[in-house]
Design goal:
Layout: H1 7-12, H2 17-28, E1 39-45, E2 48-54, E3 63-68, E4 71-76, E5 99-104, E6 109-117, E7 120-127
Antiparallel strand pairs: 1-2, 2-7, 3-4, 4-5, 6-7
């Protein structure tokens, strides 16, 4: 297993301690954990991300997506279709077992939508930074100004 040293990233970023701690935990997990179904996480824009999960054999009614308290949960459970006859399976290479994947979302990350296409589930995420948290420019005044007196009462 590969080990990645994330300590240089700690020095150049502020406020991402939780993210790096989670990445350290994931890197240190033994291979006993389930890797089914496989997935990709990609950046599609400055504040946009996409999780793509391979869910071959699962239909729209078999998949459930839920967001609760900064946790995205994707569950798949194959619903047995009654009355549908299936032939004898000689080899089963397409896994149809139930799964549950959880993703920790950073603050202000919202799920924008999900799409099932060609056996791939795409979940689009956007980071929406509130106006109060965005950087703003502060005007610097010069020392040559005189202070304005708004309301001065006679003593």
């Amino acid at each position: 297993m590969r080990h990645f040293d994330l300590s240089p990233l700690y020095r150049s970023t502020v406020g991402f301690d939780r993210l790096f701690s989670m990445m350290d935990q994931l890197a240190n997990v033994d291979n006993g954990g389930s890797s089914y179904p496989p997935y990709n996480i990609e950046r599609t824009g400055e504040n946009a991300y996409r999780i793509t999960m391979a869910v071959a054999g699962f239909g729209q009614k078999d998949l459930h997506i839920e967001v609760k308290e900064n946790t995205l949960t994707i569950r798949g459970e194959k619903v047995a279709e009654e009355g549908k006859e299936r032939g004898e399976v000689l080899y089963r290479g397409i896994a149809e077992r139930s799964f549950e994947r959880r993703f920790q979302l950073a603050d202000h990350v919202e799920v924008r939508g999900a799409e099932l296409e060609n056996g791939l589930l795409h979940v689009d995420l956007v980071r929406q930074i509130p106006e109060a948290l965005k950087p703003r420019t502060i005007e610097i005044s010069t020392g040559g100004r005189t202070a304005k007196v708004i309301d001065q009462k006679a003593a």
